[in-house]
Write a structure and sequence with these properties.
Layout lengths: L3 E2 L12 E13 L3 E7 L4 E7 H13 L6 E10 L7 E12 L13 H6 L1 H4 L3 H23 L3 E2 L5 E2 L11 E4 L2 E5 L4 H11 L1 E9 L12 E10 L3 H22 L1 H6 L4 H9 L3 E4 H8 L2 H32 L4 H36 L9 H8 L6 E7 L9 E2 L2 E12 L4 E8 L4 H10 L8 H8 L5 E7 H9 L20
Parallel strand pairs: 1-2, 4-6, 7-11, 13-14
Antiparallel strand pairs: 2-3, 2-5, 3-4, 5-6, 8-10, 9-10, 11-12, 12-18, 14-16, 15-16, 16-17, 17-18
The chain binds 4-amino-1,4-dioxobutan-2-aminium adenosine-5'-monophosphate and magnesium ion.
Length: 502
């Protein structure tokens, strides 16, 4: 009987059977009579044990030539082993080399980010990158599930557009047969038209912003999910955003435990984020928090904690240094690993020490009427376990299409959802202006050409209704859920300032 061909993810249902796996060498080490080949096959990792006694000299020698990322096929017995990655080992009886890889540029040692970004097409194979993309996929699937089960219709907005949706400073212009066109910044305006046809819709597509900012939150090409609902008000909009995020996080916790473990994600923080109703505060309340003594004290405390940590890390480094010279080989390896961890943490601590005084100054001096900067969002969200939904922003800092609050026309019926742990804005949305005259005024105030918006104004001419929606940034959501510090690792091939290749 031929062995069953399967994948590493399915090994649990083939205990003690003979199976064939196809994949790549992730890691290998050898002793005289055994090669340990760690295989990755796109679904997981599995230690394959190739013993001279089991496979004979020819295959044993071939196995020894399989360097990192060589592709191969292996047949053997599935043996449960708790200590092994994935919980199973393969005891090989047969092996077929597919290709012996050239010297692979990415080795288990530490590489700089720039080098890894240059090799993004290969870096994607590394465990942490693999795990992040698996989580991204689970998030995407969960978003579709949520909207579909809530009766939303997915509809796609165009990518070439004739007008701005989110301000004119971040448009990518392109030539459309001698006519000016822009890559879409948001599908929202089209979403509104589609909501008038289907009541509740969502778009799921790429959006583009010529953001000249080099931050950990900005891409020039990112994916946005934009629900738009007829007959929704601000509270319903917030309920939907909260329901969506809770559903998505539950799904990821449920379906991606091993990926989250690879990413060393603090699961407690994610569980806490969805354990309570999300905090809902108005912009004005948020400003009060930012400028409060309590916030200043919290930042002082944080500063003191980081100083202490820095001293402790320094001392540990010195101790390890002393020990290193006379340590045994295995202990040296351990010390090296710990050294790397300490340096990584030290970088973070030093960055915090540089940042916290700036955060404190920005928060204390914040004035009603400005938009929150990244650091203000960080400071706000550090004070709560759940995401913070900030509503009713000053109309002057928000987009032209947002409806004003009838009880206070200086604020718009806007909402931003700020993710906890310092992640900041992942959702922006609002109730839309549904009165044609007011909307025309806003278009004029924002210096937008009214003729380009005539189709959009039509939506207010023919059965205008109250409606609302929001946009969820996929990459920022993936960054938060995975606990990644930069959006560049949340999308297969990031596009940002200074990065167009590979
Ligand atoms: O707040 P924004 O600009 O809102 C809109 O575009 C609305 N038209 C959405 C709507 O109401 N339908 O963007 C929405 C989200 C942000 O909260 C953020 O998560 C993400 O899109 N985003 C970015 N993500 C990565 N890189 C960038 N440059 C981003 N700009 C916005
Ligand atoms: Mg926004």
């Amino acid at each position: 009987m031929n062995p069953i061909e399967t994948t590493i993810r399915e090994l649990h249902s083939h205990r003690d059977e003979i199976v064939t796996l196809k994949g790549w060498v992730y890691n290998s080490r050898s002793s005289k009579a055994i090669h340990f080949l760690e295989m990755r096959d796109g679904t997981g990792l599995c230690q394959c044990i190739v013993a001279l006694d089991d496979v004979g000299e020819v295959l044993f020698e071939q196995a020894g030539q399989l360097k990192q990322e060589s592709s191969f096929e292996i047949t053997g017995k599935v043996v449960e082993d708790e200590r092994s990655v994935g919980g199973y080992e393969l005891h090989a009886t047969g092996l077929k080399v597919i290709q012996v890889a050239e010297e692979y540029p990415i080795t288990p040692k530490d590489h700089g980010t720039e080098f890894l970004m240059e090799n993004r097409h290969l870096w994607l194979r590394s465990q942490r990158q693999w795990a992040a993309m698996q989580v991204r996929n689970a998030i995407q699937f969960a978003i579709h599930r949520y909207f579909q089960q809530e009766g939303f219709v997915q509809m796609d907005a165009p990518i070439f557009t004739g007008n701005a949706a989110e301000g004119t400073t971040t448009l990518f212009e392109t030539d459309y047969f001698d006519e000016k066109a822009y890559l879409t910044q948001s599908g929202q305006l089209y979403g509104e038209a589609m909501a008038m046809a289907h009541r509740k819709i969502y778009t799921f597509g790429p959006t583009f912003r010529a953001e000249k900012s080099k931050t950990r939150r900005h891409l020039t090409e990112f994916w946005m999910i934009e629900p738009e609902m007829a007959f929704y008000d601000l509270d319903m909009n917030m309920d939907l955003a909260e329901g969506l995020l809770k559903f998505v996080i539950n799904e990821v916790l449920d379906r991606c435990p091993s990926e989250l473990a690879i990413l060393e994600r603090d699961l407690g923080a994610l569980q806490k984020a969805i354990a309570e109703p999300f905090v809902r505060i108005s912009y004005s309340e948020a400003v009060e928090i930012l400028t409060s003594m309590k916030t200043a004290d919290m930042l002082d405390r944080m500063m003191a904690e980081r100083e202490e940590e820095k001293t402790a890390l320094r001392e540990e480094l010195e101790e390890l240094q002393k020990e290193h010279g006379s340590a045994k080989k295995w202990r040296k390896a351990q010390i090296d690993r710990r050294n790397r961890e300490i340096h990584k943490r030290m970088d973070q601590v030093e960055e915090d020490l540089r940042n916290i005084p700036k955060w404190k100054e920005s928060a204390a001096g914040f004035e009603w009427g400005s938009d929150f900067g990244g650091s203000d969002e960080t400071v706000l969200t550090m004070q709560f376990d759940t995401p913070v939904m900030v509503h009713r922003y000053p109309a002057a800092v928000k987009a032209f299409y947002m409806k004003r609050d009838p009880e206070d026309p200086s604020v718009a019926l806007a909402l931003d959802v700020l993710a906890p742990e310092g992640y900041g804005e992942i959702i922006g949305g609002s109730v839309r202006e549904d009165e044609i005259e007011l909307l025309k005024e806003r278009i004029a105030e924002h210096d937008l050409p009214e003729d380009l918006f005539s189709w959009y104004l039509d939506l207010r001419r023919f059965g205008s209704v109250p409606h609302a929606g929001f946009g969820l940034g996929l990459e920022r959501t993936v960054a938060w859920i995975c606990g990644l510090s930069h959006v560049r690792e949340t999308i297969p091939f990031p596009r940002m300032l200074g990065r167009l290749r590979p």
